[in-house]
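Below sits the subject:

***
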Amino acid sequence: MLRLKSCILLLSASVAAWIFFYFNFIPFFPNSSGMLGNDYGLKLPQLLDGYFWFKTNGLWPVYWFSPAFCGGAPVFAHPVNHFYSVPQFLTFLMDPLAAVICTWMVFGVLGFIGFFVLMRRGFSVSVSVAVFCATLFLFNGFFASRMRIGHIDYHSFMLVPWCAVLLLMQRPAGAWGRWMLTGDTIAAGLIITYMLYSGAQSVLPAFVLTVLVVCLICLLLRPDRFSTKIFMLQYLTACFLALALSAAKLSAIFHFLNRFPRTHYALPQFDGIVDTLSAVYRALFTGSAHIFFTSRMIHQPYPLGPHEFDFGLTPVPLVVVAAAVVFRLMQGPVNERRFAFSLKRGLLFFVVCLLMAVPVFLNTYYPVWGEWLKTVPIIKNSTQCVRWFCMYIPVVILMAGIAMEKTPVSLKTRSVLAAAGAAAVILMNMTADRAYYHSQRYSPESIVDAYHAVRSGEVRPMITHIGACVDENGRVDWRINRNDTMTDHQSQMFCYDSIFGYFLETFPFRGIRPGPVLAAENGYLNIKNPACFVFPEANGCRPGDHFRVDQIEDAYAFTRYQPFPFKVSFLQRVANGITGGAVAVVFLVFGMVCWQRFRLRSRT
């Protein structure tokens, strides 16, 4: 009866949290002006473009290049393209706007359940405390603000607790237990792989390190329950598997970014470690970080909006930890046996502290430090590292949950405190000032209309012209919806693609002009050969070169969303082979796990 009552309370609390989460989010899809976040001006056209490819070819041919943007540009080699992701797959069933809303709902629920399971299985907290922690994670500002503004690449952040759960899963001894651990490890590797393929490449190291920190904290607090050696073996194997599964994607990204690095943007950093720590505090707990950030940062090549500094957990977890510390101090000395120090614990604590210092050091300015960071892979192509603050979100929630669980009060009192904490988190989110998000001005109307026109068969996906957004004086109009010209069969030459710079500083125009894509001039067509962006040497061209007149059949196929022949480098062929082999291994191992399970059941 008690178990049934707990289940009813758990279900009721979860449903209540999700309902409030829904009403906290849905007013921005669209907002009070009927618009979406500005960065959906990049993402919704990408989703529509991916649907065009699927409509023409299905899912199987790798989507290497798109004719819809920049007169022809890479897709598979683009680090923030998300063709292989849940939001893109959902467009095969519904329009891009509905796909985004559904993605937000699905990953919100996954994050909530994942953190609940993590707290229960990894840290053995009570149901009420686990719900409190799950609610905090559900409403974290990193996920919510980026989904509001259009950074759908980061929806996979909500899978972080699931990755940790899989790596901390306890299995029975024996052969079957080892097979189950193998399956858990592969599943964790698949989650990391999904993070990369869904467009989170720029913050993937932060996501992976977050998983490591969460698991190390669990090992630190529960050394009697979890094996450090087994965990590290699983973690490293999962990362290695993810690298193998992503080898083709990583190689293509390397080829592309090697020719279009974003090293010309200096990293915005804070003037001293005190300012950085203050920024972390404000970003996590106060919700008033934007003015502080912009006034204390050195090097701001472009203005950073408030969404970049929103990691909001509200002050609730800070209050919980502070209250628990005060209560503990009032109880007298701590039991030394229970918290006995060991060399292993000391080493784990040191590693956790070192990893948690990484976002601080990345965002603190020192002479020459920022210049050196712009030589480090991944970071050198980043325009800021503030997003690495997301590493603190699960850690702060863990601290709050453990602090609440360890407070020596009755279970009923703890349940009341957890409910009050969750209610406070929800209330603060529901009453927060969201004027910035209501001022966003991207209209999804043309993208949604074009989607339904193609889906119904009224229009065929194709690009027939190069378009140019200019004002009455002939100057470039950097409007946020300029990529929407694809809905009129035009590829925008002044495209919205930050890889080439926010104002296309590094984009090789090479004579591209408004007009028909198959119009010839000086032996070249008016459409770029996108293979030249990624594999110029293999295809005998330079980055930004156009299709030659003798390649008109290839150009025609490209503009009709059909595959066309091109050559790849030797490194890319090797990477493709590694990815193919890794996929085969995954299917083989999962097949063996299922077979072992079948044999076990048949014996019993």
Summary: The longest strand covers residues 524-528.
